[in-house]
Amino acid sequence: MGPTAVEDHVPGEVTPAEPSPWPRHGPLLLLAAALVPGTLLVVLGRWGDTPAMEAWRTVALSVTVQALPFLLLGTALSGAINAFVPASVFRKALPKRPALAVPVAGVAGVVLPGCECASVPVANSLIGRGVAPAAAFTFLLSAPAVNPIVLTATAVAFPGAPMMVVARLAASLAAAAVMGWLWLRFGREEWLKPAVRHTGHEPGRSRWAEFREGFQHDFLHAGGFLVIGAMAAATFNVTVPRTWVDTFANSPWLSVVFLAALAIVIAVCSEADAFVAASLTGFSPTARLTFMVVGPMVDLKLIALQAGTFGRAFAVRFSAATTVVAVLCAVLIGEALL
């Protein structure tokens, strides 16, 4: 009889057949991810010393440097949650009635940090273990938007504006809960893939190995989007003519729609999007709030992840509805609080 896999790894037990998911060059990759943005900006700076290039370097580098510590902490905590906290904990903590489980799942995102990339497989695992899809999708939307790392980053990005943090928390929770209830009322099981992939802890595998692998993947993946987002924000601030910005910024609705679309396209990690929003000084507080509410819930990488995990039929409908709900919640709460 072959060896039986067990849930708990026995201390000191060696499993040579399983290669380590943390390569020897893993720390070097993490260091490179932290240093490449600054190095790239220095190289680009040598192409010209014009005021526009200097402004571009300043904005891009400041956004990257400010956001990097929050990205590190957020991905580390997300990896720890996924590796050490069983999905059954969430199922046991939620009320049996789906209508009540929706707001509870939304509030759970406040205390359980996770980035957008991590929230999709977590929601998939929750559904596979018996959690109502409406509650799982509410958690999917709320966790990356209202967790402590994101709220702290927002407070740092908007010093002296505590209501921006309150507005982001309220608008994101409201949008997540509304989407959960909408799925409960109108969602159909046939929109989801019939097979739900199990993403929990693999029996016999070290949880620390899972943590290291998840942290490495999430940090390198999200760090790339952070650099792209910082460069996009810098390019926007420097290259877009001021008259164009004024055309959008001076119109309450155009500014909201424009920044919502920008959040979807540039796909900045939620731990870093507040710094990008703070750099868009030509827009109203409500428009920048919309950028921060829409981004963690709907962007190009999330749509792709949802389509691959839950199916294209789900991703198209869910993303479109989430965009509308997130914009409406951001505008209503932004106008009331900001």
UniProtKB/TrEMBL annotation:
Record's compositionally biased regions (Basic and acidic residues): 1-11
Alphabetized InterPro entries for the sequence: DUF318 (IPR005524), UPF0718 (IPR052923)
Transmembrane segments: 28-47, 67-87, 134-158, 165-184, 219-240, 252-268, 314-333
Cellular localisation: Cell membrane
Topology of the protein relative to the lipid bilayer: Multi-pass membrane protein
Region of interest called Disordered, as start-end residue ranges on this chain: 1-20
Gene Ontology annotations for the cellular component aspect, listed alphabetically: plasma membrane
Keywords carried by this UniProt record: Cell membrane, Membrane, Transmembrane, Transmembrane helix
Database matches in Pfam families: ArsP_1
Domain of life, source organism: Bacteria
Family in the record: Belongs to the UPF0718 family.
PANTHER family in the cross-refs: UPF0718 PROTEIN YCGR
Record's protein name: Permease
Species this chain originates from: Streptomyces roseirectus
